[in-house]
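Troubleshooting entry. Yesterday's outputs looked truncated, so today I'm pasting the complete records for two proteins to confirm everything comes through intact. If either block looks cut off, that's the bug. Protein one:
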Amino acid sequence: MDDGYLNYRISVHLEFSEVFTHFYYAENTTDSVIKKTLLPTFQTILAFSFGCKATLISKENTEISLDRCLVLGPIKKAFEYALDPGSKILVATFKNDSFYRFFGSVSQGKAPFDPDDLLIENCFSFLWQEIAELDSAEEKVNFILNFCRPYLKSPNAISAFLTDFNNEAQNPIKAVSEMSQLTERAIQYQHKKLFGFSAKEKMRYLRFLKAICYIQNTSEKINWFDVINECGYYDQSQLIHDFKHYVNASPNQYLKFQQDICSGNI
């Protein structure tokens, strides 16, 4: 609880550790609207809203009401969300290719949409009605996990190769192409299809995330040249460009408003 803003992460069972990174619960118990910024995660989220209004706000100040249930992602840039007094949200963050394994398609970063639009039956409307009656966030999470079990497809071999690849010194597309005996163009297509973003986009994001982690774990005054050297940036302008790209703020502005930023990864 932080001045009337209750928020915490909920870990998932080992069975679903390759499907969801975690669930996130937030509740506004104050008398005022609370605004937060969500950092990019390069994953897709499934958000449920209970109680009073919750709103998503784009960089262009376009507002979208979170009514019951929405899918958004992959989240490649930061955006604001606002919780009215009495608002409660529960957010599931899909891991790696798991959104594709559920729905057989990736949203490619388009505007939020109702997950029922991806399916023939209105099962997510039913799901919201069921979990809205449950008291605790943990009960809601357990119900969601049991509900989604029959819909999950097994990962394919290419997805497993790409997910497990962790050699920073190699190009993942080239390496997986050689392992799978498929062309690099075919692997690039599969990467975009399964994850919703290219390998090049992901590598740039991981560099930015490394910088964020470095900042979060440093208790002393930040030396930006240390961040540049530790995180693989060429110079200060490249670091600033990434902060502007992902969070629409300079590194110093990020530090100033850090307490109002929520991360799906850290």
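Protein two, checking that the full record survives here as well:
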Amino acid sequence: MKYGRLVVERREYDKVKQILASAEYLNDEEQKTAIRKLQNELKAAELKPELEMPSDVVRLNSTVIFRMPEMSLKRFKIVAPEESDVSQKRLSLLSPMGLALFGYAQGDEVEWQFPSGMRTISIIEVEQPKSEVL
């Protein structure tokens, strides 16, 4: 792990915790397990103010290029659940892949339990949304 633990922007941390807490009603035990894993990793996360956030960390609205051994490169934007649209390559934070990638950085290899079994994800590139200049 590039930074030794998850790196999360302070205000985003609260939003992500709310999203994860809102998913406690789900009946899917595998997803609940993945949510609990991310919740536990967040407890040890390094919280940073916006201006100190590394640009290569997966955040909400980050676009991530990644690879798993059995597939080609994939590119998705990690978004809040209500913005999810796989046809537009927008993955919910609550999806198995969103849960696995959040807080990790470019160059990290993430071991994560998916419904199909344990997988290793290599994060190739992370892009942040362009800031609007007024």
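Both blocks look complete. Sanity check on protein two: The mean pLDDT is 91.
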